[in-house]
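**Sequence with structure:**
===
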Amino acid sequence: MTQTPVAGLRDHAAQTPEDPWLFRREGWNWRWISFRAAAADAVLAALSSGGGAPLPLGAEGRGTRGGGDGGGGGQGLSFEAVLQDLACQAAGQPIVLSGPDGSVELSADDLAAAAAAVAGLLRAATSGQRDILVLGGALDDPATRVLLSWATVAGAALLLEAGSGNVLGTAVWARPTVFAGTVEEISRLRLAAERQERGWLRRRFRRRVGLPFGRLHTVLVTDCGSLPPEEESFWRERGVAVRFLPQCGIAWYISRRGDPDA
């Protein structure tokens, strides 16, 4: 059974209202807001929009509640961008993506199908473990949109970065369960994982190699092509599933991008 992001957020707000959901870096600190606060702010934003024109993504917005402080505007994936986007969905407004042949509108059902498709790609997390994802980029990018839809429905802890260039460094620090990136970014993540495996504590106690960063169970490749054989072997030997977003039929632009015969 598929579920829309708005319905997923409402369910999490009812079942685990005080669990942190969205995280955002502010200097050396990370601020967060709970499912309850996110759902409440999204509802208020939907009411303020009046069901009219979509709210501008990333615009300055009112403060949101959360750990320590919250709110504030910003570029890229801010609290306001995500909550205003959910408000637009709740008001029944279509979501616009940038495709290879121009803009494409998606309905709530499309987003529900996208979230379910990503869920079907992932290797299950350890029992009782909540998924964690670091996400950056623009909301009109299909890969970002698909991952945000899945994370909202799944209730994954979502660390937002203003730009995609910061995602890798934050992921190494945050130790996510799922990592999504280009072939190059996944190669760089491998180098970071290898450095950790060579750490003095591992050598001293001769710990058996397991999931990288202690809990990474799936890497999602977001561009066309395939990982080099040695890259795939590295992840699979450690129990990490390697998946490609084009395989689930929702990031259709990826399979077409760079393919002159498409």
Confidence is low (pLDDT under 50) at residues 51-75, 251-262.
